User: What shape does this take?
Amino acid sequence: MKKNIVIITGPTAVGKSELSISLAKDIRGEIISADSMQVYRGMDIGTAKISPEQMQGVKHYLIDILDPDEEFNVSSFVDCANDALDKIYKGGAVPIVAGGTAFYIQALLKQVDFSDDSGKDDELRNRLEEQDTDELFEKLKEADPESCKVIHKNNKKRIVRALEYFYLTGKKISEHNDEQKHKEPEFNFAYFVLTDDRSRLYDRINARVDKMFEEGLLDEVRELKEAGYSAGLTSMQAIGYKEIYSYLSGEISLDEAKNLIKLNTRHFAKRQLTWFRKEPDVIWIDYSVTGRDEKKLLDIIKSNMKDRGII
Assistant: This one.
């Protein structure tokens, strides 16, 4: 018998954290964060990390578990999330996976096995990593243009991985990922995607970035830099951090950094929505249609959960 799981996801700044906490309080749930950067300690403001006070007593997992120079990837996420699920089920609570890293959510639902080392070669990967990111992205455009639709041109780690897989197997990693998408989920799930009118979503993103600067984003990144965390770390490639690093190194002005953060976050939200539209069996909650009345939203969510036998 498949175990139950609830997914609350959507683009950045749409309101996932607030709704997931309200739902958790209503159905005795506990939350597993599906955010690739909120795992890192000291990266609070730029990741819009939920504070202990904002958690309102709801148990959260996979937040503040690593230092910024430690490795975290989709395989790590699945392992950690499975450990959290075991604890949640044993405690009799309902697991709610909340966050915007869609690939992580998909891998957890399908229980993708990452133990296979085919398509991996340390020497090749090291050679690729020595090359310029822009040049690598152009190579990926030729080898696997579909991957370029979901991999950001500055995400060197994922670009290198896609090229490594292509060169070693002769296959496109986008096709491999599509195969994984068609695997049967291992859970009985209700998968909710929150969205909103694009202009309102972009206004929320811009306002969030302004608030981050007011709360001390510049000082946060400066402290990380002074602590020895280099700009080349995967964690420091997160939106909000890489732009501030560019400012601190004198490459751009502070206004340019702020505008770039807003622009890159909007582009990121667009890519997230593109991914979610390809996912089967999702339940869309469009705030431009439903509004943001909490009781109404919870009624919609719980009604769908009942239909799926989760509550």
